[in-house]
Write a structure and sequence with these properties.
folate gamma-glutamyl hydrolase, alpha/beta, four-stranded antiparallel beta sheet, single chain, Rossmann fold, Class_I_gatase-like
């Protein structure tokens, strides 16, 4: 074989590494993204004392996915593994959203995320391309699930409730997430305060190194918290199409609580679109589908009506609520 051909093949595997390869060049033009629900906080639960809902999804995540050209299926918590296995075979990717959920809650967000993470690994190992995207808490869950340890071993306390730029790694262009990102988007992310941060915990390089996680995860950018702590702002798995960001791309467009000071500039809205656009394009590489239109329609988020929680003081302006406890 010619040396030039060998170099091309080597470069291909360096960039794509070992995760599942998309079969053919046909993309799915009707992608459906699953969004994992999570337990209600006491504050949100108090807004609906009679209904006594078990879980919710912020409508900002739903709208963000729809704006990128995909539809949404809610994934409920508190189910057995067969439920998650069945639903992953029908959809094209999953978002672990940000929010407030304890890692040690049984039959909640943590257990559901673990099922999905392990099942997604199985799919990709079998050559069935299946991506996951984690935002804030969801990003932290991805890394913790890889470690097999509790969050206290991986996360550190920090404080970041502001809009920040990204400090990219030297090789960030070799990442899947940023390999084809437009130059103007990268320039804005580097120089403008456009990523919305709202978190009291961080993951830092030292934790990845101490727990031998650098063989799985590649940080691609960093930000600094209010006390100067350098935390990982974006990351991707080296083997699987799993991605995470510590910030909230959805908030620039869809969450409007004035006391939070989320950026809503045209530049911020346009720049934050990149992340969900990228992920939905990843989902287009999955060829999963529902058996028929009737089954598909029964699963879609359109069967639920969002509630205006912003008027009740929530930082999420609209939320989808699921399953009154008496009906579970």
């Amino acid at each position: 074989m010619a040396i030039g051909s060998l170099l091309v093949i080597a470069a291909y595997f360096y960039h794509c590494e070992a995760f599942a390869v998309v079969q053919g060049d046909v993309l799915n033009e009707r992608p459906i993204v699953g969004i994992l629900s999570q337990e209600l906080s006491l504050r949100v639960h108090s807004m609906f004392p009679k209904e006594n809902y078990t879980s919710y999804i912020s409508a900002s995540f739903v709208k963000d996915v729809e704006k990128s050209g995909a539809r949404v299926v809610p994934i409920l918590i508190g189910r057995d593994r067969s439920y998650y296995r069945n639903i992953l075979r029908k959809i094209n990717g999953v978002i672990f959203p940000g929010g407030v959920s304890k890692f040690n809650n049984t039959n909640g967000y943590a257990d559901a995320a673990k099922h999905i993470y392990e099942l997604a690994q199985e799919l990709n190992d079998a050559g069935d391309y299946f991506p996951i995207f984690g935002t804030c808490l969801g990003f932290q869950f991805l890394v913790v699930l890889t470690s097999g340890r509790g969050p206290e071993a991986i996360r550190i306390k920090c404080r970041s409730y502001e809009n920040l730029p990204l400090n990219f790694t030297q090789d960030f262009r070799k990442s899947r997430m940023f390999h084809e990102a437009p130059k103007d988007i990268i320039r804005i992310l580097k120089n403008k305060d456009v990523t919305v941060n709202s978190h009291g915990f961080c993951i830092v390089d030292e934790s990845l190194k101490y727990h031998n996680l650098t063989k799985y995860w590649r940080p691609t950018s960093y930000s600094n918290d209010e006390y100067g702590v350098r935390f990982i702002a974006s990351i991707e798995h080296k083997r699987y199409p799993f991605y995470g960001v510590q910030f909230h791309p959805e908030k620039a467009s869809f969450d409007w609580k004035s006391s939070k000071h989320y950026t809503h500039s045209f530049v911020a809205v346009r720049t934050n679109r990149y992340f969900v656009d990228f992920f939905v394009n990843e989902c287009r590489k999955s060829q999963h589908f529902f058996a028929n239109a009737a089954e598909e329609n029964a699963y879609l988020i359109y069967n639920y009506a969002p509630k205006f929680t912003g008027a009740m003081g929530s930082s999420y302006f609209q939320c989808y609520m699921f399953e009154p406890r008496g009906n579970v």
